[in-house]
Amino acid sequence: MQIPLRTKLVLKKYLLFVVGCSFLLVTRGFAQADGPLGHVADLRRGVTSARASSWDATGGNADSVVVKAGATITLADLKGAGSIRHIWTTINSPSPNHLRELVLRMYWDGETDPSVECPIGDFFGTGFEYEDIPGGHTGQRYKSWSSLPITVYGKAMNMYFEMPFGKGARITLTNDGTVDVKNFFYQIDYESYADARMVQRKGRFHAQWRSEITKAVADKDSKGINLDGKNNYQFMHAVGAGQFVGAILAVQGLSTGWPGEGDDMFYIDGAADIPSINGTGLEDYFGSAWQFREEYSYPYTGLITKGPEDWTGVHVMYRFNIEDPIHFSKSLRAGMEHGSANDRSDKYTSVAFWYQTEPHEKLEPLPPLSQRLLTPYFKVEFMPKNLPN
Known about the structure:
Elements: H1 5-34, E1 47-53, E2 65-67, E3 72-79, E4 81-92, H2 98-101, E5 102-108, E6 116-119, H3 120-123, E7 129-132, E8 138-141, E9 145-146, E10 150-153, E11 156-159, E12 163-165, E13 168-175, E14 181-193, E15 204-213, H4 219-222, E16 233-239, E17 242-253, E18 264-268, E19 277-278, H5 282-285, E20 296-297, E21 301-305, E22 313-319, E23 326-328, E24 331-336, E25 347-356, H6 369-372
Parallel strand pairs: 6-15
Antiparallel strand pairs: 1-14, 2-14, 3-13, 4-11, 4-12, 4-14, 5-6, 5-13, 7-8, 9-10, 10-11, 15-25, 16-24, 17-22, 17-23, 17-25, 18-19, 18-24, 20-21, 21-22
């Protein structure tokens, strides 16, 4: 039977309409599923919500633990498969340096080398400045800020990065200081899974703290060129398959002048001579442009602290590669130039966050406490002009 031309055109338009609607529904579904609220209505079987915390098991109000000087306590020792979804903590300590003295370590699936090793303040992106207020507070300064995975309000610190595990998870806290912590309050909210296959395809969470005074490379040596990144400040190095999801960086300017012409550089799966991904400037990677003008806090990028206008002092920034993770199959070396072609010497301190397969390459050893403490005291040397330092 021959179908009239007019009917064919109507059918064609109808089919295009159906296909188009189906495409919109599918893409809309994917977009919703990928957002932060994408799975909030999902009803999942075999999932049990639980919490490890400092609550007073007697029913009283003593909802904290003491962390004695030199001691290590276990915050959570979880069995089976599951995923940590949220960590909250607040601290009452007489020590002015407790945010660097207290060290968090996290172990997944029975491993003996931690996947996370970080001073607690840096882990939550606070305590990078030292204040000395006559008649008031002396010590590391808490700074409120907010992003999608981390928020700090006053002395309340929150972390929302997912931390999956297949056989178990252990989180410890060590007090490297000489003063007891009177009150350490915490909540670790997690899910337990009846089937370990629910985390089979998930990477394990990693975080590494680093700090160094970078060494300036003279222009006569670099010729203004840097491709191999050998003198870059390094956020992290990993062996295995995974994805880099961001960093918090504090730059303490040791001389006047803009330190931000350095690029972010990522060397993926053994790349060495030229970066796999190369940025266009420090402030560009952290979501700004044409230097930093003011403090800002957005879901994925922000400037937590803006120091003096001459770029001395401490400047703290963050970038979370959550929508745009840096994927690697064999290895990753991630870092940042310190000035153009590494022409500046400043103090860089960072925490890098990533997920990867296990076993992982052993993290760089955490330096002793004396080398981790803030260095807030300095003297000024006057110069006739701005010189590369």
